[in-house]
């Protein structure tokens, strides 16, 4: 069944398993205390389920009066984990507020064609803390992963990106993390509904699969991509060599676009190993009917080399750094990068 808590984060509940005769002798007084303070959700044998607000105080009690090595916790579908690691969850509680407050904005970076004309923009999420300081996206997504909030954060980013697409009025690449999506029918329906509500043509929205190295369930990914494809949406695979290593697999996924990672792009014009990788990637893309896109281009020499062998689309600082939408759209009036 679809896990709605993944969409709208509420206070987390912690299952705490207390083992050993000495430790379990403390259970009656613990249960009485938690019940009187409305912190206990339920209890079963040697397992108590408590609200997150109880956890820090419980840990202090465990440390002073009980054997920590015989106490474990879990949250949602996570594995049982030693209680001394619980603060890794508590320390990133701030991510819940980021999600609930929709504290994300977007910068965009140009994707150009062989003539350096703007073909599309990639939407890049940007975050700030309560004091207005920039927080790197990798820090934010790592925090979300620790607290099983990846789907909720991914959804906030996806929905916000679609809203921003109205102002851009050009093709946009929107990142999404496939491993965070439980069910395409439930988890992606709101994205489609929002696009319809805003009257955004589906031909304007390209969804880009990121974190491909973490994809292990290819059948699940196929269901997600089928959901997009049947509704006329295009999608791209990022870092293809990391997660999808065979032509057979790529033929099953049927990507519209494939991105060559910057580690094979930067310096490719004078690096034989990178040239071999770039050519192999190009062959694979063409074989499955995908448009090849090279990202991370910073030098003209690399651009011209990739263009010469057949790459169609290009992205990188050579054509423009990520910037706020209004700024980048102003630059795009001529619809051509110089």
UniProtKB/TrEMBL annotation:
<dbReference type="InterPro" id="IPR035919">
    <property type="entry name" value="EAL_sf"/>
</dbReference>
<feature type="domain" description="EAL">
    <location>
        <begin position="88"/>
        <end position="336"/>
    </location>
</feature>
<protein>
    <submittedName>
        <fullName>Diguanylate phosphodiesterase</fullName>
    </submittedName>
</protein>
<dbReference type="InterPro" id="IPR050706">
    <property type="entry name" value="Cyclic-di-GMP_PDE-like"/>
</dbReference>
<dbReference type="Pfam" id="PF00563">
    <property type="entry name" value="EAL"/>
</dbReference>
<dbReference type="InterPro" id="IPR001633">
    <property type="entry name" value="EAL_dom"/>
</dbReference>
<dbReference type="GO" id="GO:0071111">
    <property type="term" value="F:cyclic-guanylate-specific phosphodiesterase activity"/>
</dbReference>
């Amino acid at each position: 069944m679809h896990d709605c808590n993944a969409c709208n984060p509420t206070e987390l509940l912690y299952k705490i398993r207390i083992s050993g005769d000495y430790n379990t002798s403390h259970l009656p007084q613990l249960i009485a205390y938690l019940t009187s303070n409305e912190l206990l959700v339920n209890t079963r044998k040697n397992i108590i389920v408590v609200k997150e607000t109880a956890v820090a105080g419980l840990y202090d009690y465990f440390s002073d009066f009980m054997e920590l090595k015989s106490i474990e916790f879990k949250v949602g579908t996570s594995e049982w984990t030693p209680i001394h690691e619980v603060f890794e969850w508590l320390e990133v509680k701030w991510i819940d507020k980021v999600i609930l407050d929709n504290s994300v904005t977007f910068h965009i970076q140009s994707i150009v064609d062989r003539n350096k004309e703007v073909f599309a923009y990639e939407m890049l999420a940007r975050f700030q803390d309560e004091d207005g300081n920039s927080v790197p996206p990798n820090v934010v997504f790592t925090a979300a992963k620790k607290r099983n909030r990846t789907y909720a954060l991914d959804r906030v980013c996806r929905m916000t990106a679609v809203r921003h697409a109205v102002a851009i009025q050009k093709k946009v690449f929107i990142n999404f993390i496939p491993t965070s999506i439980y069910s395409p029918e439930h988890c992606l329906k709101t994205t489609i509904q929002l696009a319809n509500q805003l009257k955004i043509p589906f031909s304007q929205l390209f969804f880009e699969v990121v974190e491909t190295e973490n994809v292990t369930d290819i059948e699940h990914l196929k269901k997600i991509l089928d959901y997009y494809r049947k509704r006329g949406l295009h999608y791209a695979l990022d870092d293809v060599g990391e997660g999808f290593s065979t032509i057979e697999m790529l033929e099953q996924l049927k990507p519209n676009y494939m991105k060559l990672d910057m580690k094979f792009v930067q310096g490719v014009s004078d690096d034989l190993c990178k040239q071999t990788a770039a050519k192999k990637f190009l062959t694979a893309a063409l074989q499955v009917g995908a448009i090849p896109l090279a990202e991370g281009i910073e030098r003209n020499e690399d651009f011209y080399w990739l263009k010469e062998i057949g790459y169609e689309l290009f992205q990188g600082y050579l054509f423009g750094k990520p910037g706020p939408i209004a700024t980048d759209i102003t630059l795009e009036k001529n619809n051509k990068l110089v």
